[in-house]
Amino acid sequence: MAKPLLGPGGPVEKLDYKKKYNELYNPSSKEVSIVTVPAFNFLMMDGTGDPTVASVVVGASAGPVSVRQWQAGWTSLPAPQAAGTTVAVDVDPQGLPALAWVRETGTPLHAWAATWGGSAWVGLVDLTPSATPASRPLVCRDGAGGAVAAWVEGSGATSRLVARRWNGVAWGAASAVATNATAISNLSMSLAPGGNPRLVWEQGTSLLARTWLLASETWSARTWPIARVSSAVAVDPAEEHPVRAWLDGASLRVERWACLASPCTADVRNWRALGGALNVAGQAAATPALALDPDGVPVVAWVEGGAVYVKRWNGTAWEQLGGNVDGIAGTTASAPRIAVGPSGVVAVSLQATSATSVTLAVRRYNR
Q1: How far apart are CA 20 and CA 246, in angstroms?
Q2: What DSSP string describes 30-64?
Q3: CB of 138 closer than 8 Å to CB of 88
Q4: Residue of 56, 89, 44, 52 lying closest to 70 (CA atoms)
Q5: Cβ 133 vs Cβ 108: under 8 Å
Q6: ∠61-65-71 over CA atoms, to 5°?
Q7: Measured between alpha carbons, how far is 152 from 187 in angstroms, rounded to an integer?
Q8: CA 257 to CA 224: how far, in whole Å?
Q9: Max CA separation in the chain (angstroms)
Q10: What is the C-alpha to C-alpha distance for residues 6 and 283, in angstroms, rounded to an integer?
Q11: Which end of the chain is more exposed for a tag (fewer CB within 10 A), N or C?
């Protein structure tokens, strides 16, 4: 008999999220269906290293969109809307957040967005006024005081990855970034050099990056081959050395796109392992989250034995940042999210679950 995983609160259930939430990870390509999406949290760091957290508590129906910022203490911003199912957040250097979320307004679900002007939400908009269902919202503040929101629209072969930009006054027209979007995995969005928002995802046998260029108002494209499905991906500022985290059975491993010989020509570039397995507690790793610091150095958070751990690559080996991150007695940790601020400050959010409650916890690493 297999031994149970041990967490801070005792034995915990080992979960395979792709099996438990099969309808989310492997939707039908032939039928449009409405699914209940569990609560997801997003974490972002502002220019001073203070975290901003957006969350939705989903029960029998959609819950309120909640936004809180750390400024020597947690401050709650007013909810932009009363009902949401998933939410994403990003902040500009002044700490002003932008949100994108899916709102439950009947059938189909719609994607919405808004930006915080300092005293109120502005630019509140239904991004998808058509009858096409929306999912997987993302948002990124750009370098010109605006924001780009992206989401998946539709399902199956006709689905699209779509984006719209807020210029500080109004939202522009929607533009299609990719097709057959339900085949997309590990979708994320971050700020590239020049203040240009960048979308990153895996699709088929490729890792793709699409960057919105503010100067030309067009999407640039980069593609890298992959041989296995990742658990998390991130692209460095120069788009030269993307990083992937993946589960090799119970082991968590990370690799980077790099030159394998000199001179560095296209035919000698491939994925190179960064050290060995990251596991620390002798248990199976799960649900890794990956972020890069401003220099492209990877930082990884993951669940192991019911607790969350964090490691950073120092150029030759993985260094653990503190002990387990959750620190709440009698709970089991899950759903880690990680962010690295402009100065390299690392913050992690997670869900800490006990027999009677679920707590959203945020930890910042003090070097």
Answers
A1: 19
A2: S------PPP-EEEEE-TTS-EEEEEE--SSS-B-
A3: yes
A4: 52
A5: yes
A6: 150
A7: 10
A8: 8
A9: 61
A10: 8
A11: N
> Quick one: DSSP state of residue 171?
B
Distance CA 91, CA 98 (A): 6
Structure token digits, residue 309: 């751990």
Structure tokens at 206: 């490729």
Q: Quote the tokens at residue 8.
A: 């801070």
Residue 343 CA to its chain's centroid (Å) = 20
Q: Which of 37, 53, 33 minimizes the C-alpha distance to 45? A: 53
User: For 157, what's the count of Cα atoms within 13 Å in the CB-facing half-sphere?
Assistant: 1
**173 has pLDDT over 90:** yes
* Cβ neighbours for 59, distance < 8 A, ≥ 6 positions apart: none
**Hey, how many other C-beta atoms are within 10 angstroms of the C-beta on 277?**
15
Give the confidence band of 7 by pLDDT, cuts at 50, 70, 90: very low
* Residue range 164-177: mean pLDDT, rounded: 94
Phi and psi torsions of 312, nearest 5°: -125, 140
β-pairing, 218-225 with 147-153? Answer: unpaired
Q: How, if at all, do strands 5-7 and 10-12 pair?
A: antiparallel
Task: Please say if the pLDDT value at position 318 is more than 70.
Answer: yes
Residue 236 in tokens:
């460095």
Q: How far apart are CA 154 and CA 160, in angstroms?
A: 7
Spatial strand order in the sheet of 51-56 = 41-45, 51-56, 65-70, 74-77
DSSP 80: S
Of 244, 248, 235, 315, nearest to 279 by C-alpha is 248
Amino acid at 294: P
Tokens of 187: 């979708």
Range 203-210, long-range pairs (CB < 8 A, 24+ positions): 203/178, 207/233, 207/242, 207/244, 208/178, 209/235, 209/239, 209/242, 210/177, 210/178
66-78 pLDDT per residue, tens: 889 988 888 999 8
CA 353 – CA 17 distance, rounded (Å): 16
Closest Cα to residue 291, out of 310, 319, 271, 318?
310
CA atoms within 13 A on the CB side of 207: 27
What's residue 281's pLDDT? 85
Does pTM top 0.85 for this prediction?
A: no
